[in-house]
Amino acid sequence: MRLLSLAAFTAAFATAGSAMATTTALPFDPDVATREWLATMDPEAVARSNSYFEGGYWIQFVGPLIGFIIAFAFLQTGFAKHLRAWLEKRVKIYFFVVIAFALVYTLIGSVLSFGWDYWVGFVREHDYELSTQTFAQWFTEYLQGAGIGLLIGSLAIGLLYLIIAVAKKTWWIWGTGFAIAFVAVIGMLAPVFISPIFNDYNPMPQSPLRESVLQIAQANGVPANDLMVYDRSRQTNSISANVSGFGETTRISLADTLLQRESPGGVRAVLGHEIGHYVLQHTVSLLIMNTLLIVVAFGLANFLFNLLSKDERWGIRSIADPAGMPLFFSVLGFIFLLATPISNNIIRFHELQADMFGLNAAREPDGFAESAILLSEYRKMEPTPFEEWFFYDHPSGYARIHMAMTWKAHHMALGDIPMGPGGPPDGWRPDFVTGVPDPRAVGYTPPGEEAATPPAEQPAATTTETPATTTEPSPAAPSN
Ligand SMILES: [Zn+2]
Fold first, then answer.
1. pTM of the entire structure?
2. Residues ≥6 apart with Cβ < 8 Å to 212
3. Average pLDDT, the chain
4. So what's the pLDDT on residue 5?
């Protein structure tokens, strides 16, 4: 009986499926349209994009490796235990011994790995024409970042060691609670106290584009009356936008480079995505998922630390001993390195949600595809499935364009957006291919706006929306 009804259900489902397939005739093939968008990049642009992103695969492992070598030197030469003994004699209070140890350890580590940081953060960024900074500008920000990191980091380490010393064997449970609370507090303070050190944040000037973005935000229940624009061009040409802060300080910011380089539809598509992060409360769900990751990592670190420091190896008395800090952070760093695909998948899970939310909220599939192309400057467009699963914390450019073209095809079929070509507007090229300083000059009208005429024929319609925000050099010409 049960089997029979299951068979009937399957048959009904199969018929429904085939009936559906006949109703989903699309005005264009999303696969072909995706190819057409990808073809706007010339082979050099594709090669540059692939090489930049693939280089990042190695970079994320070499950095920690340098840290492990420094930590091993600290332990093996006896410097760690001598430093702890020296500090204990002078400082006496445990909390301050830990903080002083953390300061010395981090400072020496930073000096020893500076060459690597300089190559990754400055030389390589210039090789790929992404940076807009002189060495002096970069180095100033490097020092500011390191200083803030040192201050916040050693405070966090001091408090974590206090928990370890008090809670002993169960520290990893209490430590997780502390780590999450600390991240939330820093997240809340960052937009107010940290971000303004590196960039100027100003309300987006009045424009039809600003109005349209605020409409989208408010339509989705975001109580925003303002959007912040930050001068990302101070550091790089690449486009970006983000949701930062936590709780009360949560806000959406967009880069000036985004306004300079993208069509209004592109800007709306990106902000639709950010509004998605906001509405779906991703800061909270990320925190919850990361709690699970951290509790496992802390538990494993506890186990590995005790195993490696058995019988007071390297003079380490217990996990609460500051002399074991290089070992503690190496073990923890190693675990998080192995967890790279897990944390990437956690983030990508949220990014996919925000993408779909953004498409539905902003209804700018072409703007969405445009953004995916411009993001190729720092993200490879077509990875293998393994690469995407392991290394990507956002969907790949291909996945994003395909998602947008599928959305567009089905909504054209639905009749709630005007019919038009599947791929990019005629003649559209990303600015890094044509060398045209302002891609809006090529221009297109996003679907839904003045829809009767073919988009490429009315560049003027888009240029009127251009907010005159910044005076930074064009992406094709970095300042140095
Ligand atoms: Zn996102």
1. 0.81
2. 264, 268
3. 85
4. 52
Decide if pLDDT at 68 tops 60. yes
Helix (H, G, I), strand (E, B) or coil at 251: strand
Residue 398 alpha carbon to ligand 1 centre in Å:
16
Residue 345 CA to ligand 1 center (angstroms) comes to: 13
* Cβ proximity of 467 and 204 under 8 Å: yes
| Cβ < 5 A residues, ion ligand 1 | 351, 354
The rounded percent of the chain whose pLDDT value lies above 70 is 85
Predicted confidence at residue 92, as pLDDT, reads 87
Reduce the DSSP state of residue 201 to 3 states and report it. strand
* Neighbour-count burial for 341-368, b at 16+ CB within 10 Å, e otherwise: eebbbbbbebbebbbebbbebbbbbbbb
Do strands 251-255 and 228-230 pair parallel, antiparallel, or not at all (unpaired)? parallel
Average pLDDT for 227-250: 88
28-44+200-282+343-463 CATH choice from 3.20.20.70, 3.60.40.10, 3.30.2010.10, 3.40.50.720: 3.30.2010.10
Note whether 192 and 249 are within 8 A (CB).
Answer: yes
Q: What is the mean pLDDT of residues 390-415?
A: 96
Query: Degrees (nearest 5) of the Cα angle 151, 82, 147?
Result: 15
Burial 222-232 (b: 16+ CB within 10 A, else e): bebeebbbbbb
* Residue 220 identity: N
State the first-to-last Cα distance of the chain, in angstroms, to the nearest integer: 77
Question: 3-state SS of the chain: helix, strand, coil percent to 5?
Answer: 70, 5, 25
Ligand 1 centre to CA of 178 (Å) is: 26
Domain-wise residue ranges, the chain: 28-44+200-282+343-463, 49-197+316-336
Q: 5 alpha carbon to ligand 1 midpoint, in Å?
A: 44
Place of tokens 């916040």: 152
- Token pair of 4 as six digits: 């029979």
Tokens 């004699």 -> residue: 89
Q: Dihedral sign, CA of 237, 433, 421, 260? A: positive
